[in-house]
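Bumping with the actual sequence this time:
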Amino acid sequence: MPIDYSKWDNLELSDDSDVEIHPNIEKGTFLRLRQRKIREERETRRQQREANEEIVSLNAYLSESIGKLRDQVVEANEAVLGELMDKWQKDAQKGDEYMTERNKAIGRGEQPPVPSKENMMDTLKARINAELREAAVNAVSLDDKRKAIAGLLEGHLDKLQKNKVDAEKELERIRKEEAKHVAPDS
């Protein structure tokens, strides 16, 4: 069985014995600073990777939830659509409350609360309600109502898919970057 040495092709070697530094900088200090920089870059890449993995996971959940909502709206009769919109209104109020709390925290210079998946869905429902009001959709027929709501959901679904693709590309870039660097924990 042949041995694959390609792992070592992009290995960055740091031979600190022949480093040329300015005479006013102590060599030990320079090496510690360089090592600290390497550790900080490694930590930054790890945090970016974890954040993008979370984004991909969250977008998959939201896409599935929005798809289910869209299907419910498309298949709903007048009574079911009315019940859906009533429940949606309550959820939208929760989303508005969350956004108000988040904006207050940002205004005070604090870290905003991390949204749960339910918060995100509620906020999306609030946003779609606002878009429906802005568009002044006063559709009379059931088909017009369903098409308007499904169209807005489809638009948000497209945005989520684009964000998911972007996050996956960024995640792949970070993983390639991590593969270039041999870390003590890898």
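The tokens above came from a reply further down the thread. The helical segments are 27-75, 78-107, 117-134, 142-180.
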